[in-house]
Amino acid sequence: MGRFAATVLALAGLGFLGFGAAIAADPAGVLGGVGISGTPAGVVELQAFYGGLELGLGAFLLACAWCPGWRRPGLWLVLLANGGIAAVRLLGIAQTGEYIPFFTCALAWELGFAAAAALALWRGRNPG
């Protein structure tokens, strides 16, 4: 797997790191814009789960970009994580009828990275 796969992994990793760091630092500020708030314990949970999980995913994806032997598993993670988030986001929109402008950007990111990872996996299987 070549440069395209490494680029997809690096960009996805940086995205997860950036979002994770922002949520770890200020979960209410980042998530308040979409209506998510909570008690002090809830804020800790947001920091830990959204911030900590995204930081870990980002670090792993950067490692996958760096290590050629890890690229295929990393791309599967990008595909399945972003695809799963987008699928459930779309389900939630369909169930509730709720749609805010943030969802447009989020879905573009999620579906875009899922498609880029799928393309990188396909290219890695079918070189040329």
Automatic annotation (TrEMBL):
Q: Which UniProt keywords apply?
A: Membrane, Signal, Transmembrane, Transmembrane helix
Give the residue range of the signal peptide: 1-24
Q: Name one Pfam family in it.
A: DUF4345
Q: Which residues cross the membrane?
A: 48-67, 74-94, 100-122
The protein depicted here goes by the name DUF4345 domain-containing protein
Can you name the source organism?
Arenimonas caeni
Q: What is the lineage of its organism?
A: Bacteria, Pseudomonadati, Pseudomonadota, Gammaproteobacteria, Lysobacterales
